[in-house]
Amino acid sequence: MRSLWLNTLTKQSLYRLSTKRYSTKIEPKEPVVKTKSIPGPKSIELKKQLDSVQATGTIQFFADYEKSIGNYICDVDGNILLDVYTQISSVPLGYNHPRLYNVFNNDQNLKTLINRPALGVFPGKEWPEKLHSVLLNIAPKGLNKITTMMCGSCSNENAYKSIFIWYQNKVRGGKPLTEQEKNSCMINIPPGAPKLSILSFKGAFHGRTLGALSTTHSKYIHKLDVPSFDWPIASFPEYRYPLDENVAHNKKEDEKCLSEVQDLIQQYASKNPVAGIVVEPIQSEGGDNEASPEFFRSLQAICKKNGIALLIDEVQTGGGSTGKFWAHEHFELESPPDVVTFSKKLQLGGYFHNDDFIPNEPYRIFNTWMGDPGKVLLLEEVVKVIQEEKLLANVAVAGKVLKNGLLSLEQEFPHILNSTRGRGTFLAINCTNTKVRDQIIGALKLHGIQTGGCGEISIRFRPALIFKEYHANIVLDRFRKVLQAI
Q1: Please, which of 17, 276, 424, 462 could form a disulfide with 309 given CB 3.0 to 4.6 Å?
Q2: What is the pTM of this model?
Q3: Which strand (E) or helix (H) includes residue 259?
Q4: What's the DSSP call for residue 216?
Q5: Which one is catalytic: 62, 164, 201, 205?
Q6: Do 200 and 234 touch, CB atoms closer than 8 A?
Q7: Among 10, 56, 178, 368, the one annotated catalytic
Q8: Cα–Cα distances in Å, from 254 out to 236, 246, 287, 405?
């Protein structure tokens, strides 16, 4: 009995200490850079150690996540950077948020974390309730089903499979599977392995797994040496900025690209019929390329006309950074998209859909883990904080300050910057060329600002939802100093 009491006391003490530690810790007033270069010497040494067992060509520095807080990421050399990149747009509430830190102080939640189940066959007793109260609570309007996955790539990969299955069910007209279909699929030939395709867009990024990679067209390094499916690739609108001064040109871009989509559907009808179209609300990795609400509404109309599915990939845009929880809400579509994929800020991956995209047979969409209930517990708290602290409204306010500031810098340095764009804090700006862009990103880091590039010439901004106006002003002030030095 005494042992049980001591264990309980210890747990309570640890809980109070951990809560106090993270609730009283506050952000620094501004970034601090201590080393002459980033990565600093400690990061370089750790990189050498890691290089002996793993490829390290993409590593920028090693972080000290115990010391990172809020909008600031700290590295092992003591540099404190204001992070407006947030692990490639995947940190919703900043670092070490006290509400998230305390999620697993609950014994039941801790057991959910350590007893990670194969959700497709042995889900925990709380799983149905969590899907309803957490994931369906944030579902895009009109989509009442959810398939959970681990990451963005596998979310798209399995969403494509669901679309193909849906399409073939329509072709069969409800008839049962034939023995020929069952046997032919085992040797990768029709009719069991049908010649179908997913139409995607130039500049798109939908993942690095094999099927998703066939719809990724942002950088050659992602695709080189990897076989791809013969699937159609349409042009995505290339807008001129400012938008209000280039309405006629941008409208023609929409019309040209939409016409190309329809033409490609017809061209592929005889060889690899298009079962679905996948598109990002804002092409992120490909350069933060955006299209108008009218473009997306017309794209949906083309899908309906041709009897194909519309998949909106919200892996990077989902979760609130555009000012709405789902970026496609800005488009006022006539009806819900057929499928919406997600990951990053939502902690786990998956896709929302309706009843039509549930396979009739078990194990057709399946893997061992099918997501992670531990991540759903984190997401549950994230959603509560977003709602209680009105973070979508905060995104709109902070985003306006950041965007207006970028527009001002564009006016002040027109020989360096142009084409400020985006929604909320999901923003980007173009530089004159790739060399200048990379130079600016490196210089910003040495001024205490962590950001990232996308496309060939763009700098992208992906702050956490807790990013405030004063953070935006720090970014803009440091950005201006960097530009003055070029």
Answers
A1: 276
A2: 0.94
A3: helix 247-268
A4: -
A5: 205
A6: yes
A7: 368
A8: 8, 12, 18, 28
Strand locations in 182-297 (E): 197-201, 233-234, 274-279, 282-283, 289-290
Residues 241-289: tens digit of each pLDDT: 999 999 999 999 999 999 999 999 999 999 999 999 999 999 999 999 9
Of 381, 343, 309, 318, residue with least CA distance to 147: 343
Sign of CA dihedral 31, 35, 36, 39: negative
368 catalytically annotated:
yes
Q: Is 341 a catalytic residue?
A: no
**Candidate list 254, 288, 313, 372, residue with the active-site label:** 313
Residue written as token pair 């007209």 = 173
Q: Could you say which of 344, 345, 403, 445 is catalytic? A: 344
Q: Is 344 a catalytic residue?
A: yes
- The SS3 assignment for 86 reads helix
Nearest alpha carbon to residue 460 among 212, 246, 218: 218
Longest dimension (CA), the chain: 79
| 440, 428 Cβ separation under 8 angstroms | no
- Helical packing angle, 469-485 and 434-446, nearest 10°: 120
Radius of gyration of the CA atoms of the chain, in A: 24
The 10s digit of each residue's pLDDT in 399-456 is: 999 999 999 999 999 999 999 999 999 999 999 999 999 999 999 999 999 999 999 9
